[in-house]
Design goal:
mainly alpha; 5 helices; single chain; 47% helix
Amino acid sequence: MEAATRPAILQQLFDSGVLHYYDYGHLYNTSTKIIARTTTQDRMLKSAEYFLAGFFGLDWTNNATIEVIIEGNGFNNSLAGYDNCNNSNAGVSAGGTNASKIWENTYLQNATARFQALSGGFTWNVSDVYK
């Protein structure tokens, strides 16, 4: 999170917790303590804390426990699948990106020609039209 936007983002997480309390708080069994899972990235941990503070109030630790899952190679972390799947950091995982490029060249071909015809001397390519 950028330092300048962090307070606004944390406020949004707190507000989301409040909203979810009003929408779903009646489902919470007050005789139990929930477990909220998050990862070791600071932004993820802070997100969980601010959401829970909005949902339960500032004494949220009376109602919830945060289970921090280590995010790194060699640890089983279902919240960070990119570290668990052997193909997640390989070229095969870029299938959606590769397919998108092929499709962009197909469906934007006519649009690119229209832009080119209407813009005078500017040279358009599919990437320009897509953006």
